[in-house]
Structures are given as C-alpha cells and as structure tokens.
Design a protein that fits this description.
Elements lengths: L1 H14 L3 H35 L2 E6 L6 H7 L4 E3 L8 H7 L4 E4 L4 H6 L7 E3 L9 H23 L5 H8 L12 H32 L1 H5 L3 H5 L5 H36 L3 H13 L2 H28 L3 H21 L17 H12 L4 H27 L1 H4 L3
Parallel strand pairs: 1-2, 1-3
Antiparallel strand pairs: 3-4
Helix pairs in contact: 1-11, 2-8, 2-11, 8-11, 8-12, 8-13, 8-14, 8-15, 11-12, 11-13, 11-16, 13-14, 13-15, 13-16
Subcellular location: Membrane
Membrane topology: Multi-pass membrane protein
GO cellular component, one term: membrane
C-alpha cells in the first residue's frame, strides 16, 4: 500500500507540472463556468436593456379609417411615426430595417367600434428574434386604450363596480394550485443542466492526465524504465489510475463549486419575483445534497479513469490517445443529453443505464425528490462498473502486445 501511495504521489506531482493538464484539471472548471454565466448574463442584460429603450419606428397604414390611432402614438416618446408609407412597401421596409413595425387599420374599423363590436389592428413586425419586444411594446398603448373603451362601454350598460365587471367578463374563473414546490419546479429545468456540466468536466479532467500517464510515457520512452523497476505491474497501474481519478474528481468538484457561486452571483443581480424564487431555490439546496452528488461522482470518475487509461496504454502516442478520446466523449455526452429531454425520468430501468442514471439522480437530488432506493442502486451499479474497469485496466497493462504495440 505504501508503494502504491509513493507511485501515486510521484505521478501526481509530475502530472500537475504539465501546463495543459493543469489547465483542463484546474483552470477550465474554475474559470470557464463563471465566465459563461457572467458573460451570458451581462450580454442578455445589455441586449434586453437596449431593446427596451430603443425608439421604435412605426407606420400607421389606413390611419383615415381610425384617426384616433395617431393621438395614441403621437405623444409617446417610445415611438417615432414614419408618415407617407406606401402600403405595398411595408413588408420590404420592415425586413430592411427602415421600419420596426406597421399598424394596419382595416376600412371598417371605425364602423365596428361605433356599433359596439370588436375591431382589430394588424401589427406587422419581423418577430424573428427571441428577444424581439417590438410587438409587445407597440401593442401596449392599444391594449390600454382598449381597456378604457371597455370600461366606458360597461359603464353605459350600467356596470360600473369593479367586481361587477370581473364577474361579467369572467363568470367562471379557473385557478391553478401547484402541488410542486418552487424547488421541484425550478429543479426540473436547472437540475437537468447542472449534471451535464460536472459530468463533462469529470471526463475532461481525466482525459489529459490519462493520455500523459500512458501514451505520454511511451513517447518519452520512460515506460520501459518503470516496467523493469522492482514494482508489480498492478501496483503501477493502481498508482496511475488513482492519479487520473483524482484529477477527474478535482475537476468535477471545482466545476460544481464555480457553477454554484456563479449562479448565486447571477441570481443576486436579478430583480422581482423571478430573482427571489431562484435565490430561494439555490438556498434550499443543502450541503448534504452536494455531498450526495459528490458521492456519485467518485465511482464515475473511477470509470472514466479506467477507460481512458486503458485507451492511453493501447495508443502509440499522446496524439493518438487524444484522438481516441474524442469519440469516447461523444459516448459520454449522448446519455447525459438524454436526461435533459422532457419525459425522461428516473425509474428502475433508467437507474441501470450508466451515465444516464447518475445524471437523472443528480437532477432528482437538486429537486429534492430522490428515492433513497434508486440512489443506492445507482451508486452500487456505478461502483461495480468502476471495479470491473480497474480490473480490466490492470489485466490490459499485463499484455506485452498492448504495451509495445507497433
């Protein structure tokens, strides 16, 4: 045991001296997620603010059919009226950016209003962008005027009290009562994203040290020296294996901590009920929940370590080992992405699927709805695969045709 620890310590110290390995093990999980969160948050905040404050260029087409529409928009500083627009050129001008929107008033608009019927204005805009606020901003003055007109009509009918108006307009009111807590609702969405992050970083944290400790040794021609040393091969494998697993765990742990801190920073800068709900959601996730996720990461990191170290030992060069890592990463990403899909839940069947089970279990932990039986089954099955992985890696290392493949 002491010899294994000596090998582990030696290999670990050599591993962290490598800049590329250090970057993927420490720097990437520590700084990438805060940069992604902060960058995305600031970008969306700036774009949204700019879109909300932008003066919109609008055209009133068919204004003669309802002259009142000019009064509604004329004194509003949010809009700039573009006059004398040819109706046939409206679509082209909107697509070219000369107009943000056009309000088309039909010929019978005033007549319908006078007779007490419902009349409609067609608001044309591109609507292509997901952050497009044009329709909402342009329609708001019309909606407000429509409410005034509605109240006036109800008053003429003798309905003046607020309660009377509500009971007349909505005689039956459907109320929604959600039994799921805020943590369950938000965890259903955010809980699918977080496991994806730490599983990917667990894999990345293991990939580069594994490539260096196997194929890298071949390139440096130091593998032969290790093999003739008075150390059993299985002890050598276990020492290298523990280094790769440690790198994976460190990378995963840093990614979880940095993601949690980044999310907390972002939420504290949100205003209103949405921001408060998110803050309550993050606060409801206890330290024990993170420890449960961490406990699932340990055997998962061991699986990645055994798999990648076996591939690295087989590869002829460091570059070849990295090339093998790319298709393996696709196999890792695919089941994790399945857990994000709607309707994919943690059941007895899915708890037996590697990677998918860990991702779904982590999601349930974040939601606070994890079944202890499922958790124990997932941990046991993942640990069993990890044990088989290290046994295979040890046997693989014993084969001369693998170590000295030409």
């Amino acid at each position: 045991m002491k010899l294994i620890f000596t090998i582990y310590l030696k290999e670990f110290l050599e591993t962290i001296r490598d800049r590329k390995t250090l970057f993927f093990m420490l720097a990437l999980p520590t700084f990438v997620m805060p940069l992604i969160f902060y960058g995305t948050f600031k970008f969306m905040e700036n774009v949204t603010t700019e879109e909300r404050q932008r003066v919109l260029k609008i055209a009133l087409v068919g204004e003669r059919n309802w002259p009142k529409i000019r009064d509604i928009y004329r004194d509003n500083s949010e809009f700039k009226l573009i006059d004398q627009v040819n109706p046939s050129a409206v679509a082209r001008m909107i697509r070219n950016g000369e107009l943000d929107a056009a309000l088309l008033v039909p010929d019978d608009f005033q007549e319908l209003l006078d007779e007490g019927f419902q009349a409609s204005v067609d608001i044309q805009s591109t609507g292509a962008s997901s952050i497009d606020m044009v329709y909402g901003r342009v329609s708001q003055p019309l909606v407000e005027y429509g409410r005034e007109l509605r109240d006036q009509r109800l008053k003429e009918l003798g309905v003046s009290a607020s309660l009377q108006r509500e009971s007349l307009l909505e005689p039956i009111l459907a109320k929604e009562s959600r039994l799921a807590s805020t943590r369950e609702r938000l965890g259903e969405h955010l809980g699918a994203f977080l496991p994806y992050i730490f599983i990917i970083f667990t894999f990345l944290g293991a990939m580069y040290p594994a490539a260096d400790l196997g194929a890298g040794e071949k390139e440096r021609t130091t593998l032969e020296t290790l093999l003739i040393s008075p150390v059993e091969r299985w002890q050598l494998v276990v020492g290298k294996y523990l280094v790769v697993a440690s790198a994976a765990v460190i990378s995963a742990g840093l990614s979880i901590v940095s993601t949690a801190l980044s999310a907390l920073y972002m939420v504290r800068n949100l205003e209103g009920r949405e921001g408060q709900d998110l803050l309550n959601f993050i606060s409801s996730i206890a330290l024990m929940d993170f420890l449960k996720i961490g406990l699932l990461i340990l055997p998962l990191a061991c699986i990645f370590a055994a798999l990648l170290l076996s591939v690295s030992i087989y590869a002829k060069s460091y570059k070849e080992a990295q090339a093998y890592g790319v298709p393996i990463s696709y196999l890792v990403i695919f089941p994790v992405l399945l857990s994000i899909l709607p309707g994919v839940k943690l059941t007895l069947a899915t708890s037996m699927v590697p990677l998918l089970n860990v991702s779904l279990a982590s999601k349930e932990i974040i939601k606070g709805t994890l079944d202890p039986l499922h958790y124990m089954m997932i941990f046991a099955s993942t640990l069993l695969i990890a044990v088989f992985g290290i046994l295979f890696c040890s046997k693989w290392f014993q084969r001369e045709e693998v170590l000295f493949r030409t």
